[in-house]
Amino acid sequence: MSQTPKYTKTKEFFKHNRSAGGTPTHANQYHRVPMIFLINQNNLREKGTSTSENSTQSEEDQLKTEKYNKIYRDHLIQTYQSLKFVKELRPVDLQQLRAKRVTIPRRKGYEYKKTVIFDLDETLVHCCEDSSIEPTIILPIHFITGEVIEAPICVRPYALECLKQVSKHYEVIVFTASHQSYADAVLDYLDSEREIIHHRFYRQHCVFMDGIYIKDLRIFANRKIKDMIIVDNFAHSFAYQLDNGIPIISWVDYEHDKELQGLMHYLKKLVQVDDIRETNKKVFSLRTFVEEFNRETCKNHFVFNKEDLI
């Protein structure tokens, strides 16, 4: 019982922690690739919409299908809003960008490897706000004020396996819009020896444009843009390098989630390509995403509330 107020306080903190990096209110679906890495690559129209299919499903399977369809639908709307925002985003403030530039050392054995950049919250982990969900771990978060808050953290299925596997072939960076005190506590839990996550970057490394924290890959002075890929549940987080981005489905508590399992397979294919952007933009086509969404929504009569798409 004594933990309840701490959880509540943590929830309020993380709302603030993510507020400037959340979905823009003024900016998907049925894209050519389901968002994003389900092993069974069925599109929205084919998943759980057939009466005969539903009649043969167990009640448990139907609930799973309905839950995933909602997660998928929410992600499409979120991505649509993000990319509408990106279309209206001003060019980056070059003075701000120059001030953020960093030169990061290469670890031995990684001198010629490409770089994968992971977001943290809702990509690898989730700070559990629902007291009915059993967290993976409760971590103490130490603030510079001296205050300590206990944060219940849920780790996404396959997160550790993905980080370990990807780190064999890529340099791995975690780049979060969260505060460093929180992020370090979570990352120290995931990788206490700093063996699979090679570098960490935080809110202070983001550029702040039009009320949003954006992870501009140009801050990495000694890395080539063509050799970097960023995995983030918010497409606007990589607004200035859309072709480098993988807009993974947000994760909160879906226990059957397999997005990171599929991500491992996709990243393995990118290892040998000369320019990550050329392959990635063919898969996701984020630059034409809004137009495709509008066209397919009309053609296939997908039902979305108008206010969701504003």
Automatic annotation (TrEMBL):
It comes from the Eukaryota. InterPro entries: Dullard_phosphatase, FCP1_dom, HAD-like_sf, HAD_sf, TIM50. CDD domains: HAD_FCP1-like (cd07521). Residues 1-27 are annotated as: Disordered. SUPFAM superfamilies: HAD-like. Residues 109-270 form the FCP1 homology domain. GO terms for molecular function: phosphatase activity. NCBIfam families: HIF-SF_euk. This is FCP1 homology domain-containing protein. It comes from Stentor coeruleus. The lineage of its organism: Eukaryota, Sar, Alveolata, Ciliophora, Postciliodesmatophora.
